[in-house]
Automatic annotation (TrEMBL):
GO biological process entries: 'de novo' IMP biosynthetic process
Catalytic residue positions: 116 (proton donor)
Gene giving rise to this polypeptide: purN
Function: Catalyzes the transfer of a formyl group from 10-formyltetrahydrofolate to 5-phospho-ribosyl-glycinamide (GAR), producing 5-phospho-ribosyl-N-formylglycinamide (FGAR) and tetrahydrofolate.
CDD domains given in the database record: FMT_core_GART
Name by which UniProt lists this protein: Phosphoribosylglycinamide formyltransferase
Length: 207
């Protein structure tokens, strides 16, 4: 009997406390999960998520973007080297507060996903909960999507919805969405890692 194929190795990029990273790492511990969280990489030295990753037994690394004095591609090439040395197959953005250059996006095309706190294509960019409240929508949520050069414009893999309730403010709405993020992201990663969802010629193919 042939040995089972190794699970894809995932590198999670963070800038802060890493709550989505923790949900992904814990999901990946389950029997049958089709990916292994092999590395947590931060652009912020001392980011809280690094300690949380180490507590979970995950390798960590830091590439401080400030050391590159605004040269975004040089910073990304340094990150790419760390990812390569750690034999990473899939890149997952989890609160990584840097906009990628086209070079990095092309390098990881079809192998890099992100989670965004809105029902894309609605409310791209920042302050999505404020945008939702100001627009008066009755539903809000989160989307996991492939990363493409245009911000928050990649094909959507999965979405989760929450109601916008009377009296909601940004904080209460954000908290409700975050609960769904923690549930949604592992499901979307499993789809990508298993090949059930793949990016082909700019479109998601589902198997």
């Amino acid at each position: 009997m042939s040995a089972a194929a190794p699970r894809p190795r995932v590198g999670i990029l963070i800038s802060g406390r890493g709550s989505n990273m923790v949900s992904l790492a814990e999901a990946a511990r389950a029997d049958g999960f089709p990916a292994e969280v092999a590395l947590v990489l931060s652009n912020v030295p001392g980011a809280g998520g690094l300690d949380r990753a180490e507590a979970l037994g995950i390798a960590t690394a830091t590439v401080d973007h400030r050391a590159f004095k605004g040269d975004r591609e040089a910073f990304e090439r340094a990150m790419d080297e760390v990812l390569r040395l750690n034999q990473i197959d899939l890149v997952v953005l989890a609160g990584f507060m840097r906009i990628m250059t086209p070079w990095f996006v092309r390098r990881w095309e079809g192998r890099m996903i992100n989670i965004h706190p809105s029902l894309l294509p609605l409310f791209k960019g920042t302050h999505t909960h404020r945008q939702a409240l100001e627009a008066g929508v009755t539903e809000h949520g989160c989307s996991v999507h492939y990363v493409v050069p245009e911000l928050d414009a990649g094909p959507v893999i999965k979405q989760a919805k929450v109601p916008v309730l009377p009296g909601d403010d940004e904080d209460t709405l954000a908290a409700r969405v975050l609960v769904q993020e923690h549930l949604l992201y592992p499901l979307a990663l499993a789809d990508v890692a298993s090949g059930r969802a793949a990016l082909v010629d700019g479109t998601i193919v589902r198997r």
